[in-house]
Amino acid sequence: MGDTTVTTTEGREEAVPRAVTAPARPGLRQRLRTPRRPRLWFEILLIAVSYWTYSLIRNAVPEQRGQALRNADWLWRLEHQLGIAVEQSVNHAVNSVTWLIVGMNYYYATLHFVVTLGVLVWLFRSHPGRYAATRLVLFATTGVALLGYYLYPLAPPRLMNGGGFIDTVMVHETWGSMASGDLKNMSNQYAAMPSMHIGWSLWCGLTIFALASVPWARVLGLLYPTLTLVVIVATANHFWLDAVGGVLCLCFGYVVASAWYGRVPYALPRLPEPRGDEAGSGRRRAGRAARR
After folding, report:
1. Of 46, 183, 234, 287, whose Cβ has the fewest other Cβ atoms within 10 Å?
2. What is the pLDDT of residue 25?
3. Is there a domain that residue 121 lies in?
4. How is the protein disposed in the membrane (predicted)?
């Protein structure tokens, strides 16, 4: 007798190829919340348009001189009641050292922009996965500050009537403030609350402290907003409480970014997930390498 062929169904199920189901495409909100590698041209355009819009709105706020001076008087009285009204003493003491106050005038005029842009560039290059979320903190902080300028016009100490403060830029004839000298018509002089010098410098300092790997850089990150606080007071551009307003605006910015991304920006991955086209190219390259 010939051999009998026995056919069995055992194992046949495993031989049948399973249908491959494509993963569900994430929704628009999920895609927006997923960190992606920023595009240089878009970031340059976004920052330029955003700062132009910020300056336009800030300077379009009516210069309510009378109300701004009344608010300054009230704030100055409040600081006296709280026992923190030492701005005038700091202003006069630092003004007596010419080289120091001139240096602070230039500090006030330049580092506000230079350091902030420098930190943005550093984030873009070294922490692209955290860039968008950290940038959102800065944008939300600046956006809510515009409400403060509109709702609470405030004269800086140097413009108070009978306040006894020294306008250090005018006295030493240095270019140190867009709100003094020949440049005063380019900026709203009565938009002192909140202080974005503090909001932006503290954003820079916290970002550097949280993400820098070099200890001395982290220390400098904390010193930067501290020194900025001394500068804005010594030059009579802000009260202490203007700085508090800047800190509150920054807290709002962190709340917005954390709510949108589901965690603090610094806790996001340093490197972002690849975009769809980048991921597809990577898979194709890996497939070609496996076939070789």
Report:
1. 287
2. 58
3. yes
4. Multi-pass membrane protein
Which tokens is 121 given? 């560039």
Cα–Cα distance between 178 and 169 in angstroms, integer?
10
| 158 is a domain residue | yes
The reported pLDDT for the residue numbered 41 is: 81
Give yes or no for a contact between 190 and 155, defined as CB atoms under 8 angstroms apart: yes
DSSP secondary structure of 66-78: HHHHHHHHHHHHH
Q: Looking up tokens 């000298």, which residue turns up?
A: 181
Triad 246, 142, 240: Cα angle to 5°: 15
Report the mean per-residue pLDDT for the chain. Answer: 82
The number of beta carbons lying within 10 Å of the beta carbon of residue 256 is 18
Per-residue pLDDT tens over the stretch 85-121: 999 999 999 999 999 999 999 999 999 999 999 999 9
Tell me whether residue 52 is in a domain.
no
β partners of residue 191? 154
